[in-house]
TrEMBL record:
Its main location: membrane. GO terms for molecular function: L-isoleucine transmembrane transporter activity; L-leucine transmembrane transporter activity; L-phenylalanine transmembrane transporter activity; L-valine transmembrane transporter activity. It is found in: Cell membrane. Belongs to the binding-protein-dependent transport system permease family. LivHM subfamily. One of its GO terms (cellular component) is plasma membrane. GO terms for biological process: D-alanine transmembrane transport; L-alanine transport; L-isoleucine import across plasma membrane. PANTHER family: BRANCHED-CHAIN AMINO ACID TRANSPORT SYSTEM PERMEASE PROTEIN LIVH, HIGH-AFFINITY BRANCHED-CHAIN AMINO ACID TRANSPORT SYSTEM PERMEASE PROTEIN LIVH. This is Amino acid/amide ABC transporter membrane protein 1, HAAT family (TC 3.A.1.4.-). It comes from Desulfofundulus australicus DSM 11792. The chain crosses the membrane at residues 6-26, 38-55, 61-81, 93-111, 138-157, 186-209, 264-283.
Length: 290
């Protein structure tokens, strides 16, 4: 029973981690909480539905199509809605992210209606057994795909030129610009990567729960934000850890009989962690000159 719940929790937590990475990367560079990020996850899920239902794509093509489409969407939103306000008061930019979020939700509601849409079958769901442990082939795919994407992100951040530029910009935005780093390019790339990961999460969740809806990004986005803060906002390994811990906490809470309070578990956990460690599990205090 314990191992079964751990598998379920890691499966759910992996999807939270994919979304949380987008929050933490954007915040790490421009100190912006992009509340529209959860809705990019939702758009990715709907694009996955269209890719299977209309174009009859297989799983990997569906995943790639959703990720590519959301890369374009994320970069477009950053360029059109956020970049002109980058030097404006931070509250203006924050309100803009909420406006973009409402726009995307309303657009999909008008386009598809408010009712949930089933995700067409793209993966055969087979029950796998290892001893007394049972898990589905879809859970295995979610864990493997999430692992590959997270490892790939770490490789990009640590060993590529654009990754080094991202790390430099997160340390000191203005100094990095003075040293010749193209900040606009770095920020656009950050939005692109974050949007791609969110789209992957949307497709995986749509397949797992066999349902997508225009408002699926609201709760998932808030929980992913909690995961990012839990691990230490701005810290990439922290976002991964926070997502996995949040998934485990939610699944074990439901298994313990608190299914009514499933959504409250995330925020209760956040409050407890912030009371004990305000910077998050892997975050570090930031010293600012006054």
């Amino acid at each position: 029973m314990l191992l079964q719940q751990i598998i379920n929790g890691l499966t759910l937590g992996a999807t939270y981690a994919l979304i949380a990475l987008g929050y933490t990367m954007v915040y790490g560079i421009i100190q912006l909480i992009n509340f529209a990020h959860g809705d990019i996850y939702m758009i990715g899920a709907f694009i996955g539905v269209a890719a299977v239902a209309i174009f009859h794509q297989n799983f990997f093509l569906t995943l790639a199509t959703a990720m590519l489409a959301c890369v374009i969407l994320g970069v477009t939103i950053e360029r059109v809605a956020y970049r002109p306000l980058r030097r404006a008061p931070r509250l203006n930019l924050l309100i803009t992210t909420i406006g973009v979020s409402i726009f995307l939700e309303t657009f999909m509601t008008v386009l598809k209606g408010p009712q949930p849409t089933g995700f067409p079958t793209v993966l055969k769901n087979v029950t796998l057994r290892v001893g007394e442990l049972e898990f589905s082939s879809i859970q295995l795919v979610i864990l493997l795909v999430s692992l590959v994407l997270m490892v790939g992100l770490q490789i990009i951040i640590k060993y590529t030129k654009i990754g080094k530029a991202m790390r430099a910009a997160s340390e000191d935005y203005d100094t990095a610009s003075l040293m010749g780093i193209n900040i606009n390019r770095v920020i656009s790339f950050t939005f692109a990567i974050g949007s791609a990961l969110a789209a992957a999460g949307g497709v995986l969740v749509g397949i797992y729960f066999n349902s997508v809806s225009p408002y699926m990004g609201v709760t998932a986005g808030l929980k992913a934000f909690v995961a990012a803060v839990l691990g230490g906002i701005g810290n990439i390994p922290g976002a991964m850890l926070g997502g996995l811990l949040l998934g485990l906490a939610e699944v074990f809470g439901v298994a313990a009989g608190f299914s009514t309070y499933k959504d409250a578990i995330a925020f209760t956990l956040l409050i407890i962690i912030l009371l004990v460690r305000p910077t998050g599990l892997l975050g570090r205090p930031i010293q600012r000159k006054v």
